[in-house]
Amino acid sequence: MTDTMEKITGMTDEMLEKLERLVKHNSQRGEPAEGKPFGEGPAAALAEGLAIAEEMGFATVNMDNYCGYAEMGEGKDIIGIAAHLDIVPAGEGWNTDPFTLCREGDTVYGRGVSDDKGAVIASLYAMQLVRESGVPLTKRVRLIMGCAEETGSECMRHYMANAEPVTCGFTPDGNFPGIHGEKGGMSMLARSKRTRILSMDGGFVSNAVCNRCVTRVSAGDVDGEKLKEALAATALRSFSVTEADGVLTIETVGVAAHASTPLLGVNAAGCTMAALAAAGMEDDFVAFYNSHIGTACDGSGVGLKLSDEYGELTMNNGIVKTEDGVITCTLDIRTPVTFSEEQLRAACRGKLEDEGGCIEILHVGKPLFYPRDSRLVQDLYQAYVQVTGDTETQPMVIGGGTYAKAVPGIIAFGCAFPGRDNHIHDANESLSIPELQQQVAIYAQAILNMLQS
Questions:
Q1: C or N: which end of the chain has fewer Cβ atoms within 10 Å?
Q2: Distance between CA 405 and CA 401 in Å, rounded?
Q3: Once rounded to an integer, what is the mean pLDDT over residues 421-447?
Q4: φ/ψ of residue 446, rounded to 5
């Protein structure tokens, strides 16, 4: 292990150089163009990723700019590593340029360094280590680089429809020491029926906590001073209330977090609604929002306060917008792995509508679950233990959804280490260089374990 880490340390400058090449591309999903289904940015990032892989001596294939892959080895079986090059919007609040890799000590910053461009680089160098180890490559090892993970994994559906399935593997887009279960997902949309709110707009993606919100109400509908007092009593980072032409403009700033862990964030829209009610505004949709959605994040307002031995249900309001006088709110719900769609629908039946608003169920997705003692989970978990020596942290169930739901035979494995917050989906996304080095070692060992399994 010592020799391996020394070798990885010697490659670190190369890895960061290549990571910088990926980070410079704003690979947020954009408008489709001919031959570029997710827009210019993701296609450019994929071209860069495949170019890096070719420079490292791997065979590459571009699958219509939906995804591409780098491969080594031979044989019928395929060890698949499914990583992604697309990103969520950079958002505001950065201390550095999100599309320039910035280093401060042993930490680098940039959009995608942890989610998931750093893992692409770590996986490529893990493959290189295995290739140089002399171990017979009796299975193919294929790093699949997707371009639409953040917007529904359409890229992996294209892969599954047009390429050979993988035999086993992982997606480096979760947590160590492995994710043996992923909660199911429900998406809902709340709509106002009757409201005196003039407009309310906030959030940037449905799968992140709404961290900024701008709301306009008539000054006669709520006392501005009481509203300021109510806003001050919330967990908001900051707020302002200004009046012009009889209209109060309320700007609130909360804390972004992934929709799978909404309690780690502060929802700017939810805090605004709570403050409006506390300040005495009597409004049907304010009442509907607070009673059905609120800031608790547990689904209790719609009968979905549910849990099992692997975790609790969570609800997140990500985007709020106003069109033609109607306010809509996206709801991203992560459901416990043992609950069926029928049970979920039954739990909230009759609880999604009143005179102030209504909530529509748009989609219900199935959970993913592998027993902890399954071969795949153990091959990966043992790789983590072999490199880190950590036997206390165990494979877990998470609320996030990964490529594992789109690609049969894989689970999420890293790249986040226990107890670390790399601010993914938030400003100042970061990656620890020593952790990047450990990722390479763990992924190399995981490939070796699966080659021999």
A1: N
A2: 7
A3: 96
A4: -65, -45
Task: Give the CA diameter of the chain.
Answer: 76
The whole-angstrom separation of Cα 150 and Cα 115 is 10
H helices present in 32-72, as ranges:
40-55
d(CA 148, CA 129): 28
CA gap 133, 4 in Å, rounded:
10
**Rounded distance, CA 87 to CA 116, Å?**
8
H runs (alpha helix) in 213-334? 224-232, 268-278, 284-292
Output the six-digit token pair for 435. 């952790």
Which residues lie below 8 Å from residue 105, measured CB to CB, with a gap of 6+?
none
CA separation for the pair 248, 240 (Å, rounded): 10
Angle among Cα 28, 31, 32 to the nearest 5 degrees reads 110
For 149, the token pair is 């993970």
Going by the DSSP 8-state scheme, the letter that residue 417 receives in this structure is P
Torsion of CA 431, 45, 125, 77, to 10 degrees: 120
DSSP H or E stretch at residue 341: helix 341-348
Would you state the pLDDT for residue 124? 98
Phi-psi map region of 356: left, alpha, beta (phi>0 left; psi -120 to 50 alpha)? alpha
H or E element in which residue 251 lies:
strand 247-253
DSSP state string for 68-81: EEEEE--SS-EEEE
3-state secondary structure of 280: coil
C-alpha angle 163/164/170, rounded to 5°? Answer: 100
* pTM score: 0.77
Supply the DSSP symbol for 205: -
Residue 397 identity (one-letter amino acid) = V
pLDDT at 414: 94
CA nearest to 344, candidates 352, 353, 335, 354: 335
CA-based nearest residue to 444, from 394, 386, 389, 402: 386
**Residues 278, 294: Cα–Cα separation, whole Å:** 13
User: Are residues 206 and 226 in contact, defined by beta-carbon separation less than 8 angstroms?
Assistant: no
- Please count the other Cβ atoms lying within 10 Å of the Cβ belonging to residue 220: 10
- Give start and end residues of each alpha helix (H) in 237-315: 268-278, 284-292
Residue 200: strand pairing partners: 215
Contact 412, 419 (CB under 8 A): no
Cα angle 85-167-399, degrees, rounded to a multiple of 5: 55
Which one-letter DSSP state was computed for residue 221? G
Q: Count of CB atoms within 10 A of residue 216's CB?
A: 15
Sign, CA torsion 163/175/21/124: negative
